[in-house]
Each structure stands twice: as structure tokens, then as C-alpha cells.
Fold each of these.
Amino acid sequence: MLTQSFHTTNTIFCALMFGIVLGVSGCSSTPVKHTNASSTATFGKPGSQTHQQAALSRHYFAWKSTPYKLGGLSKAGIDCSGFVHVTFRDLFNQKTPRSTKQLAKTGKAVTKKSLKFGDLVFFKTGRKQRHVGIYVSNGKFIHASSSRGVTQSSLNSTYWSRHYWKAQRIVK
């Protein structure tokens, strides 16, 4: 009985450790406390959306809450650079690199103050970990979070503002 209890505890511990290791690799992001305001998509003022903004809004809601999966490219699971890759391929008919590292070298650097719809925003989430999302408007960006799946977050949140690295403009 004691051996079975130890085995169950050991199995649970191993599963937790695997989850932690997976969460800190690749496009990692730390759980962020979200408010109702940050979970509502902001793609411009209602009624003033461009065709691209409306298309991205529909795309986001189709992918919203898709779980995070390192290396994933489907609704079964997707990572941050995969979400960017699929979004730019499907909406903008634009081929992008598959990795966050290569995306960070693509396009033209832009300042945080000059962010526009469709710009990529990058974060340093660990010593070697990088994360990428797509800026929509009003300080909001969409991305595949390792803790929440495809979601929208605020650049002004404590976590994301502290880890903000840079932005690149790649939309043609």
C-alpha cells in the first residue's frame, strides 16, 4: 500500500515537472492575471475597422483558447511563432519564418510608440526564451500563451511591460 502511494506521488511529481519544463521552453510566457477588458478583442473602434482588422478579429476568435503546444500549427495546439506564421499565411498571404528568433530578424524595427496594426511585438520571457505576438491596437496584442493558449493581452500589464523587448513591422 505504501509502495503504491509512493508510485502515485512520484508519477504526479514527474507529470508536474514535465509541465514546468515544457512551460519554460520555446515561446514561453508566464501566467498573467487577465481582466475582462483584456479578454475582449480590441481591433480598432467599432465600425471603423479596416478589412484586415475585421479579418484578424474573425481569425482571432476562431483560434481563441486554442491550447499552447510547442511546435504546434493546428487547432489541436499551437505555439507563439506558429500562431504568427499561420496568421500571416492565412490573412496576409505572406510567408514568415517559423521561429521567434528568425521573426525577430525580419522586417523593419519600429518603436513601441509607433506600433501599428499587424506589427510583431517581442518579449524576453527568460534568459534564452523569447515570445512573439501580433499588435492589434490600443496597447493590445494577440498571441499563443503557454498558460492560456491563444489570447489577447495588454502591453501595459505588469508582466508584458517588464518583458517587452522590441517590435518589427513585416506587413507588406
Amino acid sequence: MRQKKGQMKIQQMAFMLIAVTLFLVMAAMFILMIRFSSLKESAKLLEEENALSLVSKIADSPEFSCGSAFEKPRTNCIDLDKLMALKSRFKDYAGFWGIDGIEIRKVYPAGNEECTSENYPECGKITLVTSETGTGVSNFVSLCRKEQGELIYNKCELGKVSVVYGGGD
């Protein structure tokens, strides 16, 4: 009889150890789930920050930027004359910036017509590469070009650069 009571106590202890272990495992899984969900949010925020940085970096790259063509160097300024010259040769830059799509659009004055050599500068957007998939991000920039009236002067308009990346992954 005493032996049966001892076996019963051992079984009770084993069941309790299993129950406590299962509880601790489930609690650990819950904590890890909370931590990983915040990690995903942090990764998404970091990705968005990197994308905005990429847009500014592209706008300030020598192929796009106003540089010293205007009175003083400007940040987030795109030279439209340079961009139109680059548009026909943009395939040479495939993969250079690691992007899948890029579009430059005039915000003010607004326009939807694609820029060509025939209708430039009376147009509204320049599409260098199109992409239907991926993460898109945009940023506002100055779109400047040389205009000729009685004198040659700089004409700047408000624009928006939209970049799509990560569509092929």
C-alpha cells in the first residue's frame, strides 16, 4: 500500500512538472511572438527610411542634380534638361541605383503628359523605368531648367520623384 502511494506521488509530480514545463514554453512563445512582431515593425520603418534616403540620394546624384549649373549648389534639385538627355540613355544605367522604377512628375503646374523631345518643357512627367510591383516611395524635389526669354534664366517648379524598388525579389 505504501508503495502504491509513493508511485501515485511520483506520477503526480511528473504531471505537475509536465504542466509547469508546458506553461513556461507557452509563456516563452508568447513573449517571443510579441518581440518578433515589434521587430517586423522596426524592419518596416527602417525600410521606409532607407527608401526615402534612396530618393534623396538619387535626386542629389550627378546624373540628376542641378549641381553647379545654377547659381549655387542645391539639394533635392533635379535638372530637367539633364534628365531629358538621360532619358534616352537610361538603359545604360540599369541596376546602377538598385531600383525597379522611377518617375518624375511636376506637381505645380500639374500635367500628366509624358515628356518627349517634341513637347519638352510643356509636359508633366518623365518616366525612366516602369514597374508594377515592389515598394514605392516618393519625395518632393525642385525641378529646374534653363529658360530663355530676353535673358537666359533658371526656372524651377515643384516636382515629385517616385521610386519603386524590390519588385523582382
